[in-house]
Amino acid sequence: RVIDNSRPSEEQNLVTWAQPLFKDKRMFHLMADPLLEGNYPIKGLYQALAIAAMCLQEEASVRPLISDVVTALEYLSVNKIDEAEAEESV
């Protein structure tokens, strides 16, 4: 859902809130689920955000099909990242 009424008014439109964060890699952690408390592999975060960025393209014809998004996210969720990277967290 693009609108989240549970957030402060300036953050309710999630696209508007997220777009500036994509411009600075140091801000990527702000787009991660806060319930994870930083316990996630940074590589996985970058990959998930790359998928999200494709979905935010203004022109619909360059956005991925939802089936492709689902496939990519499923791959991320089951893909085993080597233990060294898994221990590296934000």
From TrEMBL:
UniProtKB keywords: Kinase, Membrane, Serine/threonine-protein kinase, Transferase
GO molecular function: protein serine/threonine kinase activity
Principal subcellular localization: membrane
Annotated Gene Ontology cellular component terms: membrane
Subcellular localization, as worded in the UniProt entry: Membrane
The protein's name in its UniProt record: Uncharacterized protein
Annotated Gene3D superfamilies: Transferase(Phosphotransferase) domain 1
